[in-house]
Amino acid sequence: MKKIFPRLCCIALCLLFHQLSQAQSISVEGNVLATDKTPLMGVTVSLKGKNTGTQTDQKGHYRLQVKDPANAMLVFTFIGFTTHEEPINGRNVISIVLEEDRKKLDEIVVVGYGSQKKKDITGSISTVSTKAIQDVPVTNPQQALQGRAPGVEVINNSSKPGDEPQVRIRGSRSLSAGNDPLYVVDGIPYAGSLSDIGTGVIQSMDILKDASATAIYGSRGANGVVLITTQRGKNSKPVVSYSGSYGYVKQLSETDMMNASRFIDMRREAYRTIGKYDDANPDASDAKIFNAVELANIKKGTNVDWQKLMISPGYQTNHAVSVSGGNEKTKYTVGIGYFKDQGVLKLQSYERYNLNVGIDQQIGSRVRVGASLLGSYSLRQGETYNGIDNALKMLPIASPYDSAGKLITYPTGDSQQPNPLLDYTNNNRVEKMSRFRIFTSLYGEVEIIDGLKYRLNVGPDIQTYNYGLFQGKNNTNLLIGGGDATATKGYATTMAYTIENVLTYNKAIKKNNFGFTGLYSVQRQNADITSTNVRGIPVETQQYYNLGQALSVTGANSSLSSWTILSYMGRLNYGYDNRYLLTLTLRADGSSRFAPGKQWGYFPSVAAAWNIINEKFLKGQNILDNLKLRASYGRIGNTGINPYATQGQLGRIPYSFAGKGALGFVPTELRNPNLTWETTTSADIGVDFGFFNGRITGVVEWYNQRTTDLLMPHLLPFSNGFNSVLENVGTSQNRGIEIGLSGTVIDNPKGFSWKMDVNYFRNRSKILAIGGGRTADVGNAWFVGHPTYVYYDYKKIGIWQTKDAQEAALYNVKPGEIRLEDVNSDKKIDASDRQILGSPEPKWSGGTTQRFSYKGFELSIVAFARIGSMIKSDFYQNYNTLFGRYNNLNIDYFTPNNPSNDFPRPNANQERPSNYQSLSYFDGSFFKIRNITLSYSLPDAMVKRMQMQELRFNVGVKQPMIIAPYRQKWKGVDPEDVNVIGVDAPATWMLQIGVNAKF
């Protein structure tokens, strides 16, 4: 009994202690959100130092029983987010926001046929993130790359709605075989217009630049590769997102044309030059050089700004709604979008509807399938319309309307100057291009054994377009050329597919990491194109919808084009101890574009990297957090020719046979079955670095590319009956350096922050050989030792002045005419005096993005520059005629009383000044602030009361400032264009407001 009693007491005390402990145990619950207020599912919530834990559900909610709540600590962990510790302190409800671990997120980079940790990358790759894409209002994805990545040059062709910019990665290699990069969307090569893709669905864009990174795509990666990843669903409850914007678009500035007073003076001077204007009798002289209509308008004081009549404010509107979410097994996203760009010319617009669907499904533990669909329908109007041309030429002394308010067909009585406003009335000009496209990426992936995966990618792509152009008899083009109404109808269908079989294996053995990627793929495309041209539409309201009623068919064409590429690829990755990395790649491409025996090209590459930061001698230091040295060498190819180019071409020709008309066929293009691949051999050396725990990161790279077997026309003697034949001749070179820096200047989460990205790059192209031992191909302006594109012309060195009349006479010219450089000093100007004036290739280019934030406000500024290039301006060629028939640029021209050295004297006997083309070359350097955006996010408490996750408002201005000699000194509008400043849609700026919301 004595032994039993103490035991009973002990049991009673234990029960009492247990009850007391239970009394101290509490239930803790709450929600876990991301910084964008999206609930996070699957977050591990555990007690620090204990084995107790749970995970958040679809709503981001958790509940956990906690003992000793006064001293316990909750630990929240989730992949891609920083670990968060939160003391309980007796609380029952604890909700937190997990911050994204930027360092961890940045470690994953999309590469060809997969992704790698950033520290394991051996090639040259730049990334443009979602945030960067959203910083600027863009019409198509290429514009989002402008000024964002070193070595990537994006130049806008025009401000015409629907136009796409030119993209060059590390310069131009080929002289005639194409220099556009390959675009890959969700793993599938993408051909055609990127405008079909709404920018709101893009998650990121990765640019592959060196041979190691691009060789995996073989011939199609010859000019670099842009990998586009669309947005995917997340492990969260359904999230509804909306983004909308409206932009007010105006002409950046008018082309500086002469007003009435200046034009009248210029015409008088043009006739004064040839001795047909008597200043002593101006009234009689004016009656001789101005017609009755013009004289009447001069007396009335008519002064018309035709640009203001033709140009009116446009607008851009963009709306997108999406729903995304999912769980551990299924993730989805569905979105629709609408975009419209109404140009400042009424007949130009671009409208697009988008649908995107993405789904990823996990089946069991080893099988994963998914699909993404990008659908679009677009309508473009005025693709080839250039109404500003006639408006600039129209005289300011011409009145557009008669006394009854009706348009005057020929306001000056000149049949070569119809009223440009006629295009805007009675459907005199109708041009529409409708496009429909469905681009799909399907995949299935199975993990055969641990580390070994097989993936099947299937990418069907269907495109159609329907084109129509109607020009009524009162359309300005027909009023100049004469004739009945015309119409054109075109239709095309493009069917393409890509099938890829990808096998990957990754294995880690102690300090050794092995990775292998094998590929077998086929890509095929068929394009069926038909077009018909007619003249004499009997009822103009039929436009181009009833061609069979036309009086005559002026053209009927159709074509079928097909090509196939068959590919094999193997890539081996090896890493030792996270310090030494090696990548070996070999790809073989067979292209149907080449003749049998020449169809296969083989493209090897090797790349190595040294993660110096992981060496023992850098352990313990706290300044550097990344330092890697990379080097690569390899070959890539370029098909660069149209299908059937090796087979030659026949053309139909009429001839007389037995006294009767007959049709026959003659060769129009020589065949060359020996054509083969252009091949680029590339070497690259780069250093990646980071300081102060990621506050400063950057890259410095040097590259050298040598392209051989250039596909280019070889000129032949005319006695052969052909001008040229396509051959593999010539060699070119590109060398350059790239620098990219990202930094956090000020980082105060509760106050002011300042972050910046800066990039600088320079590329030097050079032709090393053009075949046949020649040093120059003057007709194509190709010169050994010079850039691949140059301006070759006479050099204007001024205007002949009165004091130099005697010397001018030696050149058979007079004072007031253009003075050209006599290169060989032989006292005459001939073809031997033409010279290389410059190149559109800049000495260097760069860009920067500056982001400033304070509490809920954020200001972003995006700018870029091109320095040291030359441009050719068609404005100074087409609207600087100086003979008085058309209006003229408002220039400072030479007169005996105004000895200008910039532009020649007007001359009524010359439709254009002698050697007028020499007036067109200018310094093309410029600095642009491309976009300034100010946004404000409402406080979390206010947003929560509105039952929302996020609400942000923004206002921005596009292209608010351009600093350029062409603009400030020479009164040009915008120096940015590809090679030649064309006469097209006016450059614009835009004021935009927008809203982003999540529910």
TrEMBL record:
One Pfam family recorded for the sequence: CarbopepD_reg_2
Signal peptide (from-to): 1-23
Domain TonB-dependent receptor plug: 117-225
PROSITE patterns (alphabetical): TONB_DEPENDENT_REC_3
Recorded superkingdom: Bacteria
Keywords carried by this UniProt record: Cell outer membrane, Membrane, Signal, Transmembrane, Transmembrane beta strand, Transport
Keyword Zinc: no
Main location: membrane
Record localization: Cell outer membrane
Coiled-coil annotated residue ranges, if any: none
Key word Transmembrane helix present: no
NCBIfam families according to UniProt: OMP_RagA_SusC, SusC_RagA_signa
Protein name: TonB-linked SusC/RagA family outer membrane protein
Annotated source species: Chitinophaga niastensis
